[in-house]
Design a protein that fits this description.
13 helices
């Protein structure tokens, strides 16, 4: 089945997958690759569609954090220190993945957009999350709470960690949250910064992919892309608030178990 077989139902399904997984530490790109392959979709158009519908998730963050973002924007105009600090942190967190992403885009799509690489990343990331959570609990590490603690140094380290997420299945959310934890932030604060860092990161990736793959996307159809965007927006908006509440009570370990189980299932299906 080729990308031209994408219809409204499939676009909606992929929108749900994107919305549910974008901000959870389970890899939206990895899930979309697996689902598109299981649906029989092939070609550059399918891979590009998976990236472009991330714009819906970007809008969800803009809406969820509209009060915070408006306050920080007004603070920038007046030169308020907290606003300048957050903008600096977002820039420093974004630059590493922007550089690496542009340089390695073609190789990543050629070598890593497949079930086996995704399964490897899912399992590795799941193990890492569980180890970090175990160490933090054993040492009773809570971490610093509040975006004011995202210093330029921490932001740059998180940006370097975000580069790992270019491997599909790793999860941008997982890479940034775990790196934030390791830098001394609380899990909730690391997650909030991860959401905000997604604005420039996902925004740039979406626009770049849409431009580079505009011909392939034409085969998908404007209406199908629109359906994917709208569905991913609605679902992601609901997930963001629920995820933050969940993190404060349960942490990342359950997601680590899920990743390992899913990765094992993919391996099983590949070798049977």
């Amino acid at each position: 089945m080729y990308v031209a077989s994408v219809n409204a139902l499939i676009a909606a399904i992929l929108g749900v997958v994107e919305g549910v997984t974008e901000y959870l530490p389970v890899s939206s790109t990895g899930h979309l690759i697996l689902v598109t392959r299981w649906l029989g979709l092939e070609g550059d158009g399918a891979d590009s569609f998976d990236v472009v519908i991330q714009f819906g998730a970007i809008l969800a963050v803009l809406v969820h954090y509209r009060a915070l973002l408006w306050d920080k924007a007004r603070g920038l105009v007046s030169g308020r220190r907290d606003s300048v600090l957050l903008l600096t942190a977002l820039v420093l967190g974004f630059v590493p993945v922007a550089v690496v992403g542009v340089l390695l885009r073609k190789k990543i799509k050629a070598l890593l957009f497949g079930p086996a690489p995704v399964a490897i990343a899912l399992v590795a990331g799941g193990v890492l999350m569980m180890v970090v959570e175990s160490v933090r609990k054993r040492r009773r590490i809570v971490g610093l709470s509040g975006l004011e603690h995202v210093t330029p140094k921490r932001a740059f380290l998180i940006g370097l960690g975000q580069c790992v997420s270019l491997w599909p299945g790793s999860s941008r959310s997982m890479c940034t949250i775990v790196t934030g934890q390791l830098s001394g932030l609380s899990t909730a604060t690391a997650a909030e910064f991860s959401f905000l860092l997604g604005l420039p990161t996902l925004g740039a990736a979406t626009l770049y992919e849409a431009y580079k793959s505009r011909n392939a996307l034409a085969g998908v159809g404007v209406s199908n892309v629109a359906i994917g965007l709208v569905v991913s927006f609605v679902v992601a908006w609901a997930v963001i608030a629920a995820f933050l509440t969940y993190l404060k009570r349960y942490g990342l370990s359950p997601f680590g178990l899920y990743r390992i189980a899913l990765g094992a299932l993919v391996f099983f299906m590949l070798v049977k």
